[in-house]
Automatic annotation (TrEMBL):
It is found in: Cytoplasm. Signal peptide: none annotated. SUPFAM superfamilies: ATPase domain of HSP90 chaperone/DNA topoisomerase II/histidine kinase. The keyword Phosphoprotein applies. Its cofactor is [4Fe-4S] cluster. The chain crosses the membrane at residues 66-88, 100-118, 125-148, 160-181, 193-211, 243-264, 276-294, 300-318, 330-355, 361-381. This is Oxygen sensor histidine kinase NreB. It holds the Pfam family HisKA_3. Residues 622-713 form the Histidine kinase/HSP90-like ATPase domain. It comes from the Bacteria. Keywords: 4Fe-4S, ATP-binding, Cytoplasm, Iron, Iron-sulfur, Kinase, Membrane, Metal-binding, Nucleotide-binding, Phosphoprotein, Transferase, Transmembrane, Transmembrane helix, Two-component regulatory system. One of its GO terms (molecular function) is phosphorelay sensor kinase activity.
Length: 713
């Protein structure tokens, strides 16, 4: 989107946009949420433009974060270089720490965000916190350099500066920044006490360290004790316990700040959720390194540098995907480290109290206990994290169980809608559409799947039965809709329901065809009886009456009437035979199926061979009629279209089915005849009994018709 703004001479303003003399119309191009991204000249290129340096100098608000970033980088680099030049006895424990990464990267990224005019609170927190860490790195190196040169008094004052930088950086970056990420606001006003408590605890810890009593030389890790000008010796008995309590509180506050991001994640809409996911993942992995202890200093340093990068991504490129897996694994890893550590050290402590040779046996016992608990703990933590991130339905087993319950309880007519409701709620999407294709095609939509939903094919035992269209992620939880485990768990149930819908439609159509055929047959019988037999019998009754009258007066005329009556009776008998034959061929009752088919085969050319296999004398009436009619229609096609020399009819009763196969050696069935009424009739007769009828080219030429008719029982 963009907003056109312009001005003329003077210092007036139009539509709330201030303009100056000779101002050039400008186009303000904005990003998501109306945040200005850049301003582009809309007219002449002859207007002189200021370079980036001039623009910074003309805007103190943009210049200040750049100065802070440059100062922080300079202090960090200088402090790191000075630390590398210290004598071995005064050197730092590790060559780099999270403070080094924070002093280098946080101010630069914060200045970058402020230069783009987005998230001013977040940018200033990063700049100020990074500067505090840079001051800590520089003052630490300067303190040890002064101490190594013998100036212990200066080292004592530099220690104050180091503590001030450490408390400022830790307070802003570890506690306050997560609370205000990524939108520069607290999750709710109820989190203000947490931020205030974090500031108070870090200030308290810095104050306690500033008032540190003079340590004993034998317990000091360096050659000489750096004096403290404000040492309070009365604090000596309470100094270490107080520091331990304050350190525990700081760790708890850091975890609480990360949990505030988790709460934001669950309550936010999809776009903001993706913004939160990036810093949450970085803070979560950093927490893992923090729990792991000092030996993980390198990983902690790297992830400290990645936190500001993740925040920048969340602000500027919030449409990136796939971060939920990183978050989940980070939380699982953090929980595993904590739980296994508790099990290991707990088992080791118990073994140490019970066994004297702890170094060998106690360590082995602790390792065995930790290994035994590792796998169950991983599964438990994974389920808990999935429940935390995705809610109840993030578990595929829960979703599958709910689908099975809904399918079992729903009415057949509403099963598709019930499944769509469960899918939509379980996957947390804006809408779901279930398409059933083929016979009984239906389309059920719940919600708004959107213009480009994800299409998942529905396959039932290798047969495509439809599609599941999944909309975009909804506002309640993270984008779990496209979690493959959930979709894989849900798809088989949807395919089963889609197949059941098709089968129900097939059954309904079969019932309708049966009812239609029955009513059509009744109408035909009524018409034939009324129009044929009815009129014939009426005429015969009239002829009998006339014959009776004529018998006395004119016997010759009566004889003629009786002859006509006999002829009419023959016609009526023929009509009755035709009606009976239409209901069931009489030859089936007279000759049986095999004999009736042989009678068909002997009616004309070409010669037809009839082969039989199995018992054919006790077949159901419906199967006999279907087999006879299929053979009759196939032989009619052979005689009309095939130009065959020979044909064969094979009747085979095997197991629970009767197979009727008719083959010929003719020219094959023409394309124009493959969809004729006779062929359709053969297929329908087989399908009505639950069987099949296939018409293909026979090996060596000709046509083969094979119908398989199932037998009851």
């Amino acid at each position: 989107m963009y907003v056109e703004a312009g001005g003329t001479s003077g210092t007036g303003a139009r539509d709330g946009v201030a303009t100056g003399a000779g101002a050039v119309p400008r186009r303000v191009v904005t990003g998501a949420g109306g945040v200005p991204r850049r301003v582009v000249d809309a007219v002449s290129l002859d207007v002189p433009r200021r370079g980036p340096v001039a623009a910074l100098l003309a805007s103190p608000r943009r210049l200040a974060p750049v100065v802070v970033a440059v100062l922080a980088v300079a202090l960090t680099v200088t402090g790191s270089a000075a630390g590398l030049g210290l004598p071995p006895e005064w050197s730092l424990d590790v060559p780099a720490s999270p403070d080094h990464a924070a002093g280098l990267i946080f101010p630069v990224v914060g200045a970058f965000l402020l230069a783009h005019g987005v998230r001013p609170i977040t940018g200033w927190l990063m700049c100020a916190g990074g500067l505090g860490c840079a001051v800590h790195v520089f003052a630490d190196s300067a303190m040890f350099a002064a101490a190594s040169s013998g100036d212990l008094t200066a080292a004592g004052y530099l220690r104050w500066l180091s503590l001030a930088g450490w408390s400022t950086g830790g307070m802003l970056l570890a506690v306050v920044l997560p609370l205000y990420s990524p939108d520069g606001r607290l999750p709710s006003p109820r989190w203000r006490p947490v931020a205030a408590l974090g500031v108070a605890v870090l200030v308290a810890q810095a104050t306690v360290q500033i008032l540190r009593p003079t340590p004993r030389p034998e317990s000091y890790p360096y050659p000489q004790v750096i004096p403290n000008p404000l040492a309070v010796e009365a604090l000596a008995p309470y100094y270490r316990p107080t520091l331990a309590v304050l350190s525990t509180l700081i760790s708890a506050l850091v975890v609480t700040a990360v949990l505030s991001l988790v709460l934001r994640l669950r309550r936010a809409d999809p776009v903001v959720r993706r913004q939160i996911a990036w810093p949450l993942s970085a803070f979560a992995v950093y927490s893992v390194c923090l729990i792991a202890g000092p030996d993980w200093w390198l990983a902690a340093t790297i992830w400290t540098g990645l936190i500001p990068v993740a925040i920048a991504f969340s602000v500027l490129r919030y449409r990136l995907y796939g971060i939920d897996t990183v978050i989940s694994r980070a939380f699982v890893a953090a929980g595993l480290v904590a739980a296994v550590s508790v099990v290991y050290f707990g088992a080791g402590a118990l073994a140490g109290m019970a066994l004297s040779d702890y170094d060998r046996v106690g360590g082995l016992v602790a390792a065995l206990f930790a290994g035994a608990f590792f796998h169950p703990l991983r599964h438990l933590l994974r389920r808990l994290v999935d429940r935390l991130m995705y809610g109840t339905h993030g578990d595929p087993a829960v979703l599958a169980a709910r689908l099975a319950r809904e399918v079992g309880e729903a009415e057949p007519a509403g099963a598709l809608a019930a499944v769509a409701a469960v899918i939509r709620d379980g996957l947390c999407v804006t809408g779901v559409t279930i398409e059933v294709r083929g016979p009984g095609s239906r389309r059920v939509t719940l919600g708004l799947p959107g213009p480009a939903p994800r299409a998942v094919p529905l396959v039932w035992h290798g047969e495509p039965v439809g599609r599941l269209l999944i909309g975009s992620p909804g506002p309640r939880r993270f984008a779990a809709a496209h979690n493959e485990r959930l979709i894989a768990a849900a798809t088989p149930y949807v395919a089963d329901v889609a197949h059941a819908v098709r089968m129900t439609a097939d059954l309904q159509r079969s019932r309708e065809r049966i009812l239609t055929a029955r009513e059509e047959e009744r109408r035909r019988l009524r018409r034939d009886l009324h129009d044929g037999l009815g009129h014939a019998l009426t005429d015969m009754a009239m002829s009998i009456n006339m014959a009776r009258i004529s018998l006395r007066a004119a016997p010759a005329s009566a004889d003629r009437l009786l002859l006509d009556l006999r002829s009419g009776m023959d016609s009526v008998s023929q009509e009755i035979r035709e009606l009976v034959y239409g209901l069931r061929p009489p030859t089936l009752d007279e000759l049986g199926l095999a004999g009736a088919v042989r009678a068909l085969a002997s009616e004309g050319e070409p010669p037809v061979t009839v082969e039989t296999s199995g018992e054919l004398s006790d077949l159901p009436a419906a199967v006999e009629v279907a087999a006879y009619r299929i053979a009759q229609e196939a032989l009619t096609n052979v005689r009309k279209h095939a130009r065959a020399r020979t044909a064969t009819v094979c009747l085979r009763h095997e197991g629970s089915s009767l197979t009727v196969r008719i083959t010929d050696d003719g020219r094959g069935l023409p394309e124009a005849s493959r969809s004729g009424i006779g062929l359709v009739s053969m297929r329908e007769r087989a399908t009505e009994l639950g069987g099949s009828c296939v018409i293909v080219g026979a090996p060596g030429g000709g046509t083969a018709v094979e119908a398989v008719l199932p037998l009851p029982g």
